[in-house]
């Protein structure tokens, strides 16, 4: 598999990037080098390898939940840019 110049232009358009012809050629070469390197994985014999989500064993290192008193609402609202009726007021994101 290889990346064509049209693929580079398409991705640049999706990312809203304006690339010069020289940049397109550079990215084309770099992306093709990445794909060529990734194709080496197809040479590995993986028939007897169990699928894993992580290379190393993952252990949950988070602390246990602990009930603690919350900050008083008046102190919380001191950090808010605006408040109304005891709540943090933010700009509307929907019309």
Walk me through this protein's architecture.
- Helices cover 37% and strands 4% of the residues.
- It has 95 residues and is mainly α.
- The chain has a domain at 5-43: Glu-tRNAGln amidotransferase C subunit, N-terminal domain (Histone, subunit A, Orthogonal Bundle), CATH 1.10.20.60.
- Strand 1 (83-84) and strand 2 (87-88) form a beta hairpin.
- Helix 1 crosses helix 2.
- The longest helix is centred in the first third of the chain and has 19 residues, at 21-39.
- The chain is flat and about 60 Å long.
- The mean pLDDT is 90.
- Heterotrimer of A, B and C subunits.
- Keywords: ATP-binding, Ligase, Nucleotide-binding, Protein biosynthesis, Transferase.
- Belongs to the GatC family.
Break the fold down into its secondary structure elements and pairings:
Layout: H1 5-14, H2 21-39, H3 73-78, E1 83-84, E2 87-88
Antiparallel strand pairs: 1-2
Helix pairs in contact: 1-2
Short description:
The chain is mainly α and 95 residues long. The protein is built from 3 helices and 2 strands, in the order αααββ.
Search tags:
two-stranded antiparallel ribbon, 95 residues, Histone, subunit A, mainly alpha, flat
Number of helices: 3
Please name the fourth-level CATH homologous superfamily of the domain at 5-43: Glu-tRNAGln amidotransferase C subunit, N-terminal domain
Helical content, roughly?
25-40%
Strand order of the largest sheet: 1-2
SSE string, helices as H and strands as E: HHHEE
Structural class category: mainly alpha
Poorly predicted regions: none
Rg estimate, integer Å: 26 Å
| C-alpha end-to-end distance | 45 Å
The residue-averaged pLDDT reads: 90
Broad CATH class of the domain at 5-43: Mainly Alpha
- Strand % is under 5%
Largest sheet: 2 strands, antiparallel
Query: What's the shape?
Result: flat
CATH architecture assignment of the domain at 5-43: Orthogonal Bundle
CATH topology of the domain at 5-43: Histone, subunit A
Let me know the number of strands.
2
Catalytic activity: L-glutamyl-tRNA(Gln) + L-glutamine + ATP + H2O = L-glutaminyl-tRNA(Gln) + L-glutamate + ADP + phosphate + H(+); L-aspartyl-tRNA(Asn) + L-glutamine + ATP + H2O = L-asparaginyl-tRNA(Asn) + L-glutamate + ADP + phosphate + 2 H(+)
Keywords: ATP-binding, Ligase, Nucleotide-binding, Protein biosynthesis, Transferase
Family: Belongs to the GatC family.
Subunit structure: Heterotrimer of A, B and C subunits.
